[in-house]
């Protein structure tokens, strides 16, 4: 177990992704990583219309499939979590 885990979000003030992610040009919404254990967990959040859930999910899988391979080239283990949710408004 390592205590060097870092949490980053794709926000201007928190946008300090590790080089292995920066080199891809794609930035996940949320990133957890440990340099000591060489692990990366990427989280992509999506709030599509219910009618487009499958379409958006397929798009996100395609977008991030190559990104999940890049950390492995640098010796990192990586996981990508796609989190789809719907927004419900009550009037």
TrEMBL record:
GO terms for molecular function: RNA-directed DNA polymerase activity. It comes from the Eukaryota. Keywords: Nucleotidyltransferase, RNA-directed DNA polymerase, Transferase. This is Reverse transcriptase. It comes from Plakobranchus ocellatus. The lineage of its organism: Eukaryota, Metazoa, Spiralia, Lophotrochozoa, Mollusca.
């Amino acid at each position: 177990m390592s205590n060097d885990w870092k949490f980053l979000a794709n926000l201007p003030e928190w946008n300090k992704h590790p080089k292995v992610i920066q080199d891809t040009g794609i930035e996940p919404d949320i990133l957890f990583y440990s340099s000591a254990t060489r692990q990366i967990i990427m989280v992509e959040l999506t709030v599509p219309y219910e009618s487009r859930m499958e379409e958006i999910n397929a798009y996100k899988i395609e977008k991030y499939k190559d990104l999940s391979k890049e950390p492995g080239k640098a010796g990192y283990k990586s996981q990508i979590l796609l989190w789809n949710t719907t927004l419900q408004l009550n009037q």
